[in-house]
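ARCHIVE CARD
Drawer: 12
Card no.: 0347
Subject: one protein chain, sequence and derived structure
Cross-reference: see card 0346
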Amino acid sequence: TARNPSSLSFRNTTSDNYLPLKLDVTSQSDVDSAFADAVSQFGRVDVVVNNAGYGLSGPFEELEEKDVRMQMEINFFGLLSVTKKAMETMREQKPSGGMIQQITSIAGQRGVANFSLYCASKFAVEGFTESVALETKPEWNIKFQCVEPGGFRTDWSGRSMAFPAKRHPAYDHLDAREKAKGRHMTQAGDPIKGAKAMYDLAVMKDPPLRVVLGSDAYQGIMGKIDTYSKNYKSYERLSNSTDVDE
């Protein structure tokens, strides 16, 4: 799927394994039509990959309200629309079941300067997915997964990145555009290897709820876990001091 499906091109496709569809995740009619067409063509939907999204980069005080709302509209609310339709489709098909794979980010697990709203959108996806996974009946056989990539050599830091229209004089120590330019196509991740890993995760018999992709993401999450552990243990006595005295 894509907002402009004519831009899609893949080798070795046939009508039995490929159906390009228009899908703007902010349009409910697009979401409904895409699922209806997929079921009509293939009979069922086994895997949905929620990969629509973009990066909004810049200090929080430089962001205009319209930019903030658009970031959440696409990265979070659009994902909700697709997930809801996927759950309905997978629950009602016979036999029921399927995998809903959310492509979040290591930025859904830790904060990153210049990406406050992007991180917020991905943190929201993580919390939503973990929660909704606890709401389904086992017999529905619907599985959820948060895939958390680090940096990959795609166009994410290029044309897929958005920046504030105006700079804020207080933030002369941060330059989001230069940071993105220096990072573009120098990331550690190989997109082809990443796509293969996503496929392998999607077809696992007992898939994990969360998994990071990329050595930078792995290093980042392990660092976050260590920091969390030290922080909460440091305040163990305070944390446990607020219960009602029996």
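Annotation on reverse: Residues 13 and 200 are 20 Å apart (CA to CA). Residues 65-92 form the longest helix (28 residues).
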